[in-house]
From TrEMBL:
The keyword Isomerase applies. This is Ribose-5-phosphate isomerase A. It comes from Niastella yeongjuensis. The keyword Isomerase applies. The lineage of its organism: Bacteria, Pseudomonadati, Bacteroidota, Chitinophagia, Chitinophagales. Pathway: Carbohydrate degradation; pentose phosphate pathway; D-ribose 5-phosphate from D-ribulose 5-phosphate (non-oxidative stage): step 1/1. Substrate binds at S28, G29, S30, T31, D83, G84, A85, D86, K96, G97, G98, G99, K123.
Length: 225
């Protein structure tokens, strides 16, 4: 299977978990793109549920598929959130944020009874950190955060750019991509990073995922708990 076919494979399986009257968090990225397409088909056949998007891009795609959208502030809880990941370790700890939506993704995930992650096998790692860790920061004084990361971790944080301008997240923040290489204790690092003045959140999703559905080139899928 091509990588896209693998993404479609896990997305189509995940779409079957969405039942009538559910409130479902919809993640961001190219894997969840296929989930939204599949849910759109099921909405056409009468599936009735409401979606909480994790980015403007996801909201637009879902709206195109006539998936009813709701605001996080208007619901008490989310039954299930389905999202992607950039890295997943054997304990289901993750790095997310490759698409720049980590803040809203983490808030929606935190409000969900269940978090299901969809990924192709290339996202599986023994240790987190090869993928540069995205850090969402307030633009004012972002260089102080960069300096703190350099001095505390000897890591050179890179301001994420888009078309020669700094990337701006849905919530008006910058993203610093931090090449930690090897993150031994994600549970500790996430708290240290979020304690730096000016850091809004980081792409470490620690003890959040309940399940991961992994697709392989031979068409096999595996579930990680
Ligand atoms: O940015 C994100 O957190 C996305 O969910 C990302 O981690 C997965 O994107 P992909 O499905 O396009 O690889």
């Amino acid at each position: 299977l091509t990588q896209d076919e693998i993404k479609q494979l896990v997305a189509n399986q995940a779409a079957q978990l969405v039942q009538n009257n559910m409130t479902v968090g919809i993640g961001s990225g190219s894997t969840v793109y296929w989930l939204i397409m599949e849910l759109g088909k099921r909405v056409k056949k009468g599936l009735l549920f409401q979606a909480i998007p994790t980015s403007k891009k996801t909201a637009a795609l879902a709206a195109q598929q006539n998936i009813p959208l709701a605001e996080l502030n208007d619901v008490n809880a989310i039954d299930l959130t389905i999202d992607g990941a950039d890295e997943i370790d054997p304990n289901l700890q993750m790095i997310k944020g490759g698409g720049g939506a980590l803040l809203q993704e983490k808030m929606v995930a935190a409000a969900s009874r269940e978090l299901l992650i969809l990924a192709d096998h290339s996202k599986l790692v023994q240790h987190l950190g090869n993928f540069p860790l995205p850090l969402e920061v307030i633009p004012f004084g972002w260089k102080q955060v960069q300096r703190e990361i350099r001095e505390s971790y000897q890591v050179e944080a890179v301001l994420r750019m888009q078309d020669d301008q700094p990337f701006i997240s849905d919530h008006g923040h910058y993203i610093l991509d931090c090449p930690f290489q090897q993150i031994e204790h994600p549970d500790i690092l996430t708290y240290e990073l979020n304690g730096i003045p000016g850091v809004v959140d980081n792409g470490l999703f620690v003890n959040m995922a309940d399940l991961a559905l992994i697709g392989f080139p031979d068409g096999r899928t595996e579930t990680m708990h």
